[in-house]
Amino acid sequence: MEWGGPNFIVSIALVMTIGWIVNNWIRAKHGYALEDEWGGKTEKAESADIRALRAENAKLAERVAHFEDRVVVLEKIVTDRGFDVAHQIEALRDERSDTRIAAPKRRSSVR
Prior knowledge:
Blueprint: H1 6-30, E1 34-35, E2 41-42, H2 48-79, H3 81-102
Antiparallel strand pairs: 1-2
């Protein structure tokens, strides 16, 4: 094989092309940006499905944050001392209404 012959130049071009293809295949497999023919980077195009999922994810994250704030407020209400007092008052009202229901009602006979 001659070092300056056409077979040598074709084999070098073939090895470089195969190397470029393997390099891009590995990058695509792992999600990295691909190289174009001039050494620049080509980012992976984002599909409409991915954009919709990202928008939905952001909306759901916002709702979760909103509900976390509400849970904090509810925890403060439940652990507040006034909440226990309100429950005790309601329990007393329930007891009073239960005793009224249990007692037989008298009918007055007006004839």
